Structures are given as C-alpha cells and as structure tokens.
Amino acid sequence: MTARLLVAGVGNVFLADDAFGPEVIRALEQRPLPSQVRVRDYGIRGMDLAYDLLDGYDTAVLVDTARRGHRPGTLTLIETEPPDATVVPEAHGMDPAKVLALARHLGDEPLPRVLLLACEPAVLPSGDDDILPGLSAPVRAAVDHAVAALHTLIPALLADPAGPVPIPAGPVNASGSPVPAGPAPALGRPVESGPPRPAVLPRSAAGGAQDR
User: Fold this and answer.
1) How far apart are CA 161 and CA 170, in angstroms?
2) What is the per-residue pLDDT across 20-70, written as a single tens digit (0 to 9) for each?
3) Distance, CA of 51 to CA of 147 (rounded, Å)
4) Do 172 and 203 form a contact (C-beta atoms < 8 A)?
5) What is the three-state SS of the chain?
6) Model pLDDT for residues 121-168, shown as the tens digit of each residue
C-alpha cells in the first residue's frame, strides 16, 4: 500500500519571517512533489490542520519558523513528540504542539508521524497587532533550500514512513556554512525534539541541521 504523506505550510504571511511555511508551499508549485503527497498552505488555520492530521496520513511534515539559536536561515528537521496531557488543545491559532493536542482531542485515530522542518527566523514582529509582510534576506534564501530538502526527504519517507532518512555529517545553515557542534538548544516554539531518532536533513539537499 502506498504511504500517504502531508506537507503543511504553517505561518502568518503578514508577520515577516513567520511567512516561511506558506512561501515554501508556494515555491513547491514550481517544483511539485510526487502526486501521492498532499501539499497545502494552512496559514494560521489550526483547526483545519488538526482535522487533516486525522485523515489517515502515515507522515506529516510541517514547514514553519522556529527559534533554535542558530543563524537566521538555518534549516532544522525535528522529530516531534506526541502531545501529553499538559498541552492544552487550541482551536484558534497555529501553535504546532496545541494543534497536535487538538487533533488527539478531536478523534480516536492515531496521529501520523510528525516532523517539523523549521527555519531560524531573523525578523518576527514583537506585538500581536504588528504587520510586517515580507521575508528577511536569509529566510528568503532558505526557501529554495527547503524545497530542495523536501525533494530529498519526501521520497525517503514515502518508501519507509517510519524509517530514518540519510544522516549528514553535521548541521549547516542556509548558506551552506557549518553550525558549531554542541547540544541542541531549546526550541523557542512549543514543539520539542522527540526521542533520539535519526530524523535529519540530507546534506545533498540543504545540508540540514540535526536534532536529537
């Protein structure tokens, strides 16, 4: 049976680098993924994403920004943990951890394996009412790297949804420069790295940053 896979762009197009996810989805229109992959821009519609996560997908890849302490534009692939009872579901907004908790609350179906392809932002508005459209230069450059990374990552996940993907020698940022080795910094968004699994970006695609 062919694996079912969802690629979901997440973010607000009016909040500077938070538009990274939707911009990657837009760029994929020029380089489409295999036909069995559903590619969708969810924006900030957390309820829509929560319902779709219950639609029998084997794997979901969320594309979003996340502060990891790297240089702006750095791509990181994070294996998320299933939400626990301490995470409060949220029907409005797009906090990935709360969307996963909402999906678990809405149905009895098992959640798919969820990976987060995250980009380190350079500019995010500080106030709830701020509007700042347009990506910063390093995050704009990372869009093409993310598309290339998805074209390497997705075939591996289609072949083996529960298996590892190729492991690079180490993390790199969007310009190809190495990120210093060391413990993975705390994620600035409410999704935390899952148990140790080799979920990383192939160096041939965008280099890729590893989280364990």
Assistant:
1) 23
2) 999 999 999 999 999 989 999 998 888 888 888 888 899 999 999 998 888
3) 25
4) yes
5) CCCCEEEEEECCCCEHHHHHHHHHHHHCCCCCCCCCEEEEEEECEHHHHHHHCCCCCCEEEEEEECCCCCCCCCEEEEEECCCCCCCCCCCCECCHHHHHHHHHHHCCCCCCEEEEEEECCCCCCCCCCCCECCCCHHHHHHHHHHHHHHHHHHHHHHHCCCCCCCCCCCCECCCCCECCCCCCCCCCCCCCECCCCCCCCCHHHHCCEECC
6) 999 877 665 788 899 999 999 999 999 999 989 999 999 988 876 543
CA angle 81, 139, 48 (to 5 degrees): 45
pTM: 0.75
Measured in whole angstroms, the distance separating CA 205 from the mean position of its chain's CA atoms is: 15
Q: Could you tell me how many residues make up the chain?
A: 212
| pLDDT tens figures, 74-126 | 998 888 876 665 565 555 566 777 787 788 778 777 788 999 999 999 998 77
Look at strands 37-43 and 209-210 and give their pairing: unpaired
